[in-house]
From TrEMBL:
Xref: PANTHER family: ACETYLTRANSFERASE, RIBOSOMAL-PROTEIN-SERINE ACETYLTRANSFERASE
Keyword Chaperone: no
Gene Ontology molecular function: protein N-terminal-serine acetyltransferase activity; protein-N-terminal-alanine acetyltransferase activity
Protein source organism: Nonomuraea terrae
Name of the protein in question: N-acetyltransferase
Residue intervals of the N-acetyltransferase domain: 4-157
Length: 161
């Protein structure tokens, strides 16, 4: 059985971040291209003061990220997650997202967590659903990557769920 943990990002995690963002489907998950070790260090540093991000570990190896950002005055935060391709399909993203949600409700006192995924990403939908986030509908043409517009499905989880 794999031990899944969450911990603060550290500068020495930069090689894991750099490897993660080499995956074509993760490249768009960073606010800028992460192609050098310095970019990876910058990505880690960018989380300071921008929300709460945690390195996801499987047997003490960094395999992903979960975060809650855009916390507003209504007790609502925005959840994001990713897992490197070689760690997918093992329930890691689901476990990490559940743990993040519990932390956000218990430690940060949030009431509502939201997330969204492109409708052409059924794996992310499964993660959201299995982590207790209920579908709330489709937002048409919400995202644009490479000149192509994508619909997204919004999900939410309440502290009372």
């Amino acid at each position: 059985m794999v031990h899944i943990g969450l911990r603060e990002w550290r500068e020495d995690d930069a090689p894991a971040v750099l490897r993660a963002f080499q995956s074509p489907d993760l490249r768009d998950q960073a606010p800028w291209p992460v192609v050098t070790p310095q970019d990876a260090v910058g990505w880690i540093a960018s989380w300071h003061g921008a929300g709460h991000a945690f390195a996801v570990t499987a047997d003490d190896q960094v395999v992903g990220n979960v975060a809650v950002t855009k916390i507003d005055g209504h007790g609502t935060g925005w959840v994001s997650y990713w897992v490197v391709p070689e760690a997918r399909g093992r329930g890691i993203a689901v476990a990490a997202t559940r743990r993040l949600a519990r932390w956000a409700f218990d430690e940060r006192g949030l009431f509502r967590l939201e997330l969204a995924h492109r409708t052409n990403n059924p794996a992310s939908c499964r993660v959201a659903t299995l982590a207790g986030f209920r579908s709330e509908g489709i937002e048409r043409g919400k995202l644009c990557y490479g000149g192509v517009r994508y619909d997204v499905e919004r999900h939410a989880r309440l502290a009372t769920d």
